[in-house]
Amino acid sequence: MNKISKLPIRSKVLILVVIVVVIVLAIFGITKQGHKATAQQSVSKVTTTGNKSQTIRLSDALKAKQTSIWYDFNLSSGEMLKRDTIVRNVYVIKNGYITPYYTNTDEALKVSDINKLSDSEIISKAKKLNKEYEEGLVNDVKKRIKNKTYFYVDSVTDAQKATSLASLNAIKYEAPKPQKIKIEATNNGQNKTPISESITFSQKWLFNDGKVYDMEGNKTSHDKATEVLNEKYVMKGNPDTISVSGQSQYNAEIDGQKYNGFANELMTKVKSANIIFALDTEKGSLISKNTGSDE
Question: What integer is the mean pLDDT of 179-185?
Answer without folding.
Answer: 97
